[in-house]
Amino acid sequence: MKISIGTSSESRSGCAGKGFGTIFFGLFFLMGSLFTVFMLAETWKQIEPWLWPATDCTILSSGVTETGDDEAAYRPLVRYRYEFDGQVRESDRFLRSGGDTASFDNARDRAARYQPGDAATCRVDSNHPSLAVLERNVPWIGLVIFFPLIFVAIGGGGLWTTWVGFSSNEKEVESISQKATSGRGQKFMVGFGLLFIAIGGAVFIPMALVPSIRSAASTSWRETPCTIVSSSMRSWSTDDGTSYRADVLYEYRVDDRSWRSNRVEFFGFLSTGYADAREILDRYPDRASATCWVNPRVPSKSVLERQFRFKHLLGLIPLVFILAGWGVANYGWKQMRVRKAAEEKTMEEASEDDSPRFLKPQVGPVGKVGGSLFFALFWNGIVSIFVWQAWKGWEQGNPDWFLTIFLVPFVLVGLASFGFVGHFLLALANPRPRLTLTPGQPRLGGELRLEWRFAGRSSRLASLRIFLEGREEATYQRGTDTITEREVFATFDLANTQNDWEIPQGAIELTVPSDSMHSFEADANKIIWEIKVEGEIARWPDIGQNFPITIRPIHIENL
């Protein structure tokens, strides 16, 4: 038998590699840091009013006013009088941020909570008594700070790895077993997956779930005639160009009372393009008569259009984050359970069953298709959000060159991922190896017999190689990174042929050297044995499957 002993060495980053890594990860770190600082400042701004002292006040007037800002055109205008430090003051500040909103309904409902003559409680900045607010925002934005922190972690970890992790000034080279520490990778995966689920849920709920529930509930709302009070195009500048919104303010009567609203549809956030806004304005010109749908139990709630449109499916994009997070967290949790089971039961206590065993591949052809498809959808789902933003800028004649150039490598990876999906789909038609190992768990110093046969057209195979490989894996922390190193310590060729009559099926026996290492799994170290099958097919995806096996310690009688 052929036995090859090999070691792996850590690759060193050259000047070009360090330069590219610095630029690439530096952008991640810089962008994440800027967003983090901005969100921290905004969070503190929303927290401050919760620390201000409460003061009694009297409502003087209540209504809705236009702000002149197309992005947030309406504001609840509630004027109130309060006394602080012996001085009577007046203010109309509703929230610390002013309370500006694009929804007339929101501004109207907020103002309706305060009627002239009512007693209320306001909050006053003791350092600036002229600054008071009626209501305080719950600083939910602070929860979103974890999203830019992901970019900070990726960028910082990448920079550390580029300049420190791969430094050639290491004074001592240790075995990967010595460098291994307690396994924390699985816990990180669970936490990272849960974070992705939280982010996806925080976006999916307001973006798709709530509008869908409201749309379904509106099927029982009452058809009511209404009049278009005003119909105007709202526009505002963004980092990706100009966004547009059709602001249609309409009026209707229920039980001899007039109501106003500007809710056109429940998925209004998806209509930020000029064409969509223009189409809505054409359907509802000024002073025209129309039909709206009113909630019979809450007459202030109404909508002009309640039908589902194909573009509303864009609201499902956050599901990519939720599914990806669930997949990562579930995998990490399973690995934690496997590790725990390994701790409770050593390899010496493994099954003594010497009967033949039919081997199962580590990842079958269908699993490879599923895994590659999941990655392709996950990766392209995230990238498509930014591509869509870049495309909007080009479509509106205001291209963002930095964003476009930055996205090029990510788009190429996304296209390549679909190429892998196609590759594995073609591989489904390959002949599939069926391996039987006797005994099912061979020992060091003992005999093993491997039988193979192919299901399918094995005549398509131009060559076949089957070999047994032993390798060590260790996971350890280097700075902020969790690194797994792999080192192949033994390779045994079992079959290597191009003969047509030998490929379809065969058998071979091997004595496993007693001085090798048995299978082992701990917190951060593993000894893994696999039988690998490699088959070459001309002008078609080749066969490449791994079949994990367990090799038990040497028998006590052989010592």
Task: Explain this structure.
The chain is α+β, with helices and mostly antiparallel strands and 559 residues long. The chain has three domains: 44-141, no CATH class; 222-305, no CATH class; 345-558, Immunoglobulin-like (Sandwich), CATH 2.60.40. 35% of the residues lie in helices and 29% in strands. The protein contains nine helices and 19 strands. The chain has helices spanning 15-47, 104-112, 146-165, 176-179, 185-217, 274-283, 319-344, 365-395, 401-427, and strands at residues 54-66, 74-84, 87-91, 119-124, 132-133, 222-238, 241-254, 257-261, 289-294, 302-303, 357-358, 432-438, 447-455, 461-478, 481-497, 505-511, 520-521, 525-537, 543-549. It has a five-stranded antiparallel beta sheet with strand order 3-2-1-4-5. The chain has a five-stranded antiparallel beta sheet with strand order 8-7-6-9-10. Strands 14, 15, 17, 18 and 19 form a five-stranded antiparallel beta sheet that branches. Strand 2 (74-84) and strand 3 form a beta hairpin. Helix 1 runs antiparallel to helix 3 (146-165). It is elongated. Mean pLDDT is 82; it is low at 1-13, 166-183 and 346-351.
